[in-house]
Design brief:
single chain; 587 residues; 10 strands; elongated; binds adenosine-5'-diphosphate
Length: 587
């Protein structure tokens, strides 16, 4: 059952690889066949040459009679060398990079269609890690399969026929010599797949430590805290553990490889002996003996190449390749197109939501209506469910049960592109794009060329007017400048404002800005949001106070709602929070 599924996945991958680079793949197969034929012709030419030499030695023909077969053989050998070089070059320099580009971009396209909540699932992230690495390997993997079939397939078939006509037992020995090779291959595949499964979380951890040590985002803190040694030790430990695992699997498979070589050697010895006896008995000519004897060497060398190198590479990469292919089995979030009605606002009816790998509901039986011209603030302690609710209200996540409609469109059944079309958002973990200031703002609307007037306006509205030109890259790594945390947040807000929208969300993008400044930005924001639906998530009540309505969240539910004054009167969670923050707003 499991095997069947694996085979189906591999077959599906063959189709994916072929579709990515159809012309180049056909050319690869063509190369393989020509290459194989040059090997086979070499055997025939060797046979002819040695027969001619035997005749000449007996004085039955002249030296000139040997010349033509000699030239033919030399030509074929030369051709074979050229083809070998060309084919390798073609696989490594043409086919593999071209397919990597195509396959990576197909993967990225697919990822943009899958349910966003999957990215919260660590298991999915592990698989994705392997799949991304797989994009590079898929082209090589299937390139080799196509070569195995075309080059080795055609060559072994032709030499098989040749040997069979000479002496059927030779073919049997050859096939028997293959059995240990196949067995060792299966063991390798199993070992490397298990290794890959085991190492993915470790590799992710190791990558993370490396980032903490070397990336510009982290290094200041890492140095400052004196955490360099700490992370470096973690990095070394995880790397060592990874290497130990790899070494132990490598050692075991090397022993197998040795046994395989031995069995091939024995097979070759038996075949040579049989040939020798047959020649002495006059069953085959000396030419045939020479041809087969020299080609046996090649056959065994090729077998080792297939099993030792190609199949070894393939089994090492098979799980990455499998993971790449499996990504395409994840259903895309699709939906129907519908008519968006901005007057319908956003309506939430009894929604529940839990994260993958979590048995606790992050949102529990929550209902809410945001009318199309209302500014709503969500407040609550860390972990109350504010960010999760925002993702549900924007259609990024879909509820497990219950219903969210945006402009009358159900987030569960509507094409996400249509849902996002009229919304804009600025989130806590906004992107700090290493691009120009202009691009950092206008990236929120890539449907047209950046509109400089709108870029300027958005920056002004977000209070983000710095002393740098619009085409300065916001990264010292690219000869540009770095911004302060507060400046980055303003750029992110400008980006959110640049996008035309009916519904805009600010999910705590202002934590690096001081409370009073935040309130100023929010006041401005509220003016901008006039006539639109707006949602502000903040833990600072001075800003929340500006909203038409405040929702207080606790444990995934809305526990209180109303205006600032009403909530103070209720004397609940909100009132307590307010009193503890009051001094933030005194100057
Ligand atoms: P807030 O924005 O109010 O701080 P969140 O919406 O981030 O709260 O979190 C709500 C609840 O969901 C919390 O209990 C949090 O631990 C949980 N949660 C958030 N993200 C994940 C995740 N990726 N996997 C599992 N649980 C999560």
């Amino acid at each position: 059952m499991m095997r069947q599924k694996q085979n189906r996945t591999l077959l599906k991958g063959a189709a994916i690889a072929f579709k990515a680079t159809p012309f180049l793949t056909i050319l690869n197969i063509f190369f393989g066949i020509i290459h194989a034929l040059s090997f086979s012709l070499q055997i025939v030419a060797t046979n002819k040459l040695f027969d001619a030499i035997t005749l000449a030695a007996k004085g039955l023909s002249t030296f000139v009679d040997c010349l033509l077969p000699l030239l033919v053989l030399a030509f074929i050998m030369l051709l074979e060398q050229v083809l070998n070089g060309l084919h390798n070059y073609y696989m490594n320099v043409v086919l593999s990079p071209a397919s990597e580009v195509k396959l990576s971009s197909r993967l990225h396209k697919k990822l943009s269609d899958v349910d966003a909540v999957l990215f919260e699932d660590t298991e999915f992230l592990d698989d994705l890690n392997k799949a991304t690495a797989g994009a590079k390997e898929v082209g090589i993997f299937y390139g080799i399969i196509y070569v195995l079939i075309s080059l080795y397939g055609v060559y072994f078939a032709s030499i098989g026929v040749y040997l069979f006509t000479l002496k059927p037992i030779l073919l049997v020995i050859l096939l028997l010599a293959f059995i240990p090779a196949i067995l060792s291959h299966i063991t390798r595949v199993k070992k490397f797949t298990a290794l890959e499964e085991e190492s993915a979380p470790l590799r992710r951890e190791n990558d993370y430590y490396r980032t903490a040590l070397t990336s510009i985002e982290y290094f200041k803190e890492t140095r400052m805290l004196g955490a360099f040694g700490y992370f470096n030790n973690l990095y070394k430990d995880t790397l060592e553990l990874l290497r130990t695992k790899e070494w132990s699997v490598g050692r075991e498979t090397s022993v197998l490889q040795l046994l395989l070589n031995l069995s091939s050697f024995i097979g070759m010895g038996i075949a040579s002996y049989l040939l020798f006896v047959a020649t002495l008995n006059g069953e085959i000519t000396v030419g045939a003996f020479a041809a087969v004897f020299s080609s046996l060497n090649l056959v065994f060398a090729l077998m080792q190449e297939i099993v030792g190198m190609h199949m070894g590479n393939m089994s090492q990469n098979s799980s990455k390749v499998m993971n790449y292919i499996k990504v395409f089995d994840i259903p895309s979030v699709k939906g129907t197109d519908g008519i968006y009605d901005r007057t319908a606002g956003i309506v939430v009816e009894h929604i529940f939501f839990a994260y993958p790998n979590s048995d606790k509901n992050a949102i529990e039986d929550l209902s809410l209506t945001i009318s199309p011209e209302e500014t709503v603030a969500i407040v609550g302690e860390n972990g109350a469910g504010k960010s999760t609710l925002v993702r549900l209200l924007t259609g990024i996540y879909r509820p497990a049960s219950g219903k969210v409609t945006i402009g009358g469109l159900d987030t569960k059944t509507t094409n996400p592109e249509i849902l996002y079309m009229n919304s804009s958002g600025v989130f806590q973990n906004y992107g700090r794009f290493k691009m120009t200031l202009t691009d950092n703002v206008s990236i929120s609307d890539t449907t047209s060329e950046p509109d400089m007037r709108r870029v300027e306006q958005s920056l002004e509205q977000a209070d983000a007017e710095f002393d740098i030109s619009y085409d300065t890259v916001l990264s010292p790594e690219f000869d540009g400048v770095d911004l302060s945390g507060g400046e980055w947040q303003r750029v992110a807000i400008a980006r959110g404002l640049y996008r035309t929208n009916d519904f805009i969300v600010l999910d705590e993008p202002t934590s690096a800005i001081d409370p009073i400044e935040e309130r100023e930005i929010f006041t401005k924001f509220q003016q901008l949001a006039e006539g639109k639906a707006a949602l502000i998530v903040t833990h600072r009540l001075g800003s929340a106070r500006l909203a038409d309505r405040i929702l207080v969240m606790q444990n995934g539910s809305i526990v209180d709602s109303g205006s600032h004054e009403e909530l103070l009167e209720h004397d609940g969670v909100y009132a307590a929070m307010w009193h503890s923050q009051a001094q933030w707003y005194e100057r």
